[in-house]
Amino acid sequence: MIREITLGQYYPVDSVLHRMDPRTKLFGTMVFIISLFLADHIAAYGVATAFLVLAIKMSRVPFKFMVRGLKAVLFILLISVSFNLFLTDGQVLIRLGFLKITREGLRMSCFMGLRLIYLVIGSSIMTLTTTPNQLTDGMEKSLGFLKAVKVPVHEISMMMSIALRFIPILVEETDKIMKAQMARGADFESGNLIQKAKSMVPLLVPLFISAFRRATDLAMAMEARCYRGGEGRTKMKPLHYNRRDYGAYVFYGAYLAAIAGIRLWI
Amino acid sequence: MSIKAENLTYIYGAGTALEQYALKNVSFEIPDGQFVGLIGHTGSGKSTLIQHLNGLIRPAGGTIYYDGTDIYSEGYNLRELRSKVGLVFQYPEHQLFEADVFSDVCYGPKNLGLHKEEAEERAREALRQVGLKEKYWDQSPFELSGGQKRRAAIAGVLAMNPKVLILDEPTAGLDPKGRDEILEEIRELHRKRGMSIILVSHSMEDMARYADRLMVMNHGEKVFDDTPREVFKHYRELESIGLAAPQITYIVHELTERGVLLDVGITTVEEAREAILKLLRP
Amino acid sequence: MGIIKASKLIFDYIRRDEDENIEETDRAIDNLNVDIEKGSFVAILGHNGSGKSTFAKHINGILTPTQGTVWVSDMNTADEESVWEIRKRAGMVFQNPDNQIIGNVVEEDVGFGPENIGVPTDEIWRRVDESLEAVGMTAYRYKSPNKLSGGQKQRVAIAGVMAMRPECIVLDEPTAMLDPNGRKEVIKTVQELNQKEGITVLLITHYMEEVITADRVIVMDDGKLVMDGTPKEIFSDVERLKSYRLDVPQVTELAWELRKAGVEIPVGILSQKELMEHLLPIFKDKFPGQMRLDAPSEAMASEPQ
Hints:
The complex is a heterotrimer of chains A (266), B (282) and C (305). Chain A has helices at 16-19, 22-38, 42-59, 63-71, 74-87, 103-129, 132-142, 153-182, 193-199, 201-224, 243-265, and strands at 92-96, 99-102. Chain A has 266 residues and is mainly α. A two-stranded antiparallel ribbon of chain A has the order 1-2. In chain A, a hairpin with a 2-residue loop joins strand 1 (92-96) and strand 2. In chain A, helix 7 (132-142) packs antiparallel against helix 8. Chain A is flat, with a radius of gyration of 23 Å. Chain A starts with 15 loop residues before the first helix and ends with a helix. The model of chain A is unreliable at 1-6 (pLDDT under 50). With 282 residues, chain B is an alpha/beta fold. Chain B is 40% helix and 21% strand. Chain B has 11 helices and 10 strands. Chain B has helices spanning 46-53, 78-84, 101-111, 116-129, 146-158, 176-193, 204-210, 228-232, 235-240, 247-257, 269-280; strands at residues 3-12, 20-30, 35-39, 61-66, 69-70, 85-88, 164-168, 196-200, 213-218, 221-226. In chain B, the strands form 2 sheets. In chain B, strands 6-7-8-3-9-10 form a 6-stranded mixed β-sheet, sandwiched between helices. A 4-stranded antiparallel β-sheet of chain B has the order 2-1-4-5, with helices on one face. In chain B, helix 3 packs across helix 4 and helix 4 (116-129) crosses helix 5. Chain B is globular. The mean pLDDT of chain B is 92. Chain C is of the alpha/beta class and 305 residues long. In chain C, the strands form 2 sheets. In chain C, strands 6-7-8-3-9-10 form a 6-stranded mixed β-sheet, sandwiched between helices. Chain C has a 4-stranded antiparallel β-sheet with strand order 2-1-4-5, covered by helices on one side. The two termini of chain C are 33 Å apart. Chains in contact: A-B, A-C, B-C.
């Protein structure tokens, strides 16, 4: 199940988006998210759809790969869509007992659904075309100004990068521990909530101990390789903007202007 | 009481482009009380195979019979099967979790629904049989040495009174003496309890010494299944799949090729010593 | 003085209770004196808990002596100012391949060390290319470490150390978690680095097959140095090795058993070839006419190693 989450997974192909500076992609994702919250007209969604389709095409990542990421948020999606569908007042279209579907509700829930789906696909395009390291590098650099107020930006991005490296390892380890305990008659499925919670102890204790052990080992290995925080470090892959990045920023400006224009005048 | 695998097939990533056979039509029968060695390089399918034997994973094709019954049939009690077919995984760290060794060993029997007294009795017996001294019983399992952890993990499975004990590389990471000690204890268990043992190992030397029967896996297929001495005669084929016979096999073969009349099935240092000395001073 | 020198080294693991009072001390290294020559391949043998890993951690300044001194390239490891220089000169590879790879892509992991010591970008790339080439992992440079086998991961870890341009590499049981093929792969890589690049290698292991090609073997037991010599010298005393919970390769054991039974074979036989050199003439004397000494032998050609 955990393997199905595509958010945070990298899809290795060569494309314009893959070669783009991570900061450009981060900023683009932000622009896109803002635009989704500004959009309240069908025309604005049309523009957003065009933006998204363009990004999908440029990424050269198979579309079905992005859709897979939606599975993980399906539950949230259904809840928010049905809330909007049934709980919005207005001109009643259909009445089902105490539930009613209104014209406004239908419109809202459609927009809400689209918004969430676009949000997930939009951000997965970023993670699918950017290696976790580039992503953390991009964040470190774009948030560099926070260092002035003593936010340990480098350390945080290093932690994220390490977390990304160890998540697959720990997922695999969880599977092994589960099997080892099932071989001793453990039952992780049946029983009520309390019994289920109790049955997790034999899984969680070995998992935590192993994670701590890995952390200690890793800290030692990093120290042995002369790691001592961000001070005085150079970069193997320093970030710098290319012409396509500047182009992208111009495009973002035009896109945001279009969305804002639709909101203001239509 | 036998385990029988029939045309066992397992596919990784079924339905995707990366489809790959982890097991391909593997069949065998292990009668009561046999000591079976299972060998193959990483990715040969041996780990997948042993996880089928106690029903932890379901095959894509074929099935397993335990004591004549299909373990994947509707309503078969897999939890009970897992107490009969004990599986000890490679790293004890993956199963030890209680505050002390003794409670940890009780976990299995308690899962079987046994009373506290009976579970504890079984734990005591299991701990004694794996040679873990009483002074360690109330210690935290995480403070034990590598070899002792290994013993505690084996005891944890043994306490469920299995008829078959499967051990996945029980000696990995131990020093030579620790390795020999664990293997000797497994052999003792085999003798005393009369249980079948399936030992997964990378060491051909250990296989030669302990196993009655050796199964060799390669790319999901069973390529050899015979006594170690017969299997090692095919050392050329073993090499072609990335394995090798014990050093002694090579020595005996070279001597034979040079005209010394030796039995080419010799696989251990003791046998080679006896045979050579017999020739040199009749 | 050699590249690594330990003099009267003592190290105690100290366990303290909540109030920082000493609860228990455990002497892991007990008066160790070693001098390692630059460019040599030295293997350290010893059972689990013999103190060999503790010693390894001293060379890289992860641990500092309780008493005595360790020098690396004439720098005292207890001297806090030189600790980074020491870590640059003496790289370290650990047992668990997963827990020492930091990068999410092979080449980025190799670049991690140089980044830490402030090497300029162009130079990092040069070093990464060279190091990957030296361990034969260039073809995997864009892969995720999670997709590699254990042996390949260890080679990446070695490349990561090589990119720091060390004079010496300490490998702390690098093969303990690998299968036989992975073990061979790693040992071959280390041997090549020693021969081609002249890197001093300190290999800690308990696999006897891995030490027979070393220049020098040191055996540790109970925190002390108990044997020190060439592989041939060390493997001459099988009984003593066994008393230190160690083992010998089957050839060595057979030769030693035969010698004990009165067959005239010298001590310290390390390979099948050597054994044959001594055993075949004996058979020839015994069974003249029956032996085919010059016939090609399949079994000889395929001896492992």
